[in-house]
Amino acid sequence: MGYTIYWYREKSVDSATFEKILHDFKKIKPELNRNGILLADPSGDSSPMITSDGVGFNGLCNSQGCCEPFSFMRELIFAYREPRKRDGKYFQYVKTDGLPYGLAAAAFLIIAKNHLKDQINVSSDNPVLMWEKPREWCQHILGYGAEFLPENDSVD
Fold this sequence. Notes:
Layout: E1 4-9, H1 15-34, E2 39-40, E3 49-51, E4 54-59, E5 70-73, E6 85-86, E7 89-95, H2 101-116, E8 120-124, H3 132-142
Antiparallel strand pairs: 1-7, 1-8, 2-4, 3-4, 4-5, 6-7
Helix pairs in contact: 1-2, 1-3, 2-3
């Protein structure tokens, strides 16, 4: 059975805000490692991609399993056609099948929500289960996150 996280976001994030998101996510990464959540690049092989242009990762395919890669680019670029929109925001999602790297995706989105406020809306298949640990980590390490709850909107 799959587990999916959905979000609607603005087309671009200003550089300064994106750097704050990256800074906070890098602070969470050691906690992920301590919990055995090893991130790989989007194909599930080498190191995760964390740059000023975007973030892309998956679980390490040879140990914890991988599914669809998580990707959050500073600037969305549409090669063929724009994705669905709601209230001027662009639809994105990641299906993690409940694998451990999904906790990293959840932590990243908690961080993004903190910095982007109303510029992003986050929901998921299960509004509580996958969010408990990432909320705890963000609160303990970053001082925010305990109050985060996915909006659990329907994904038309």
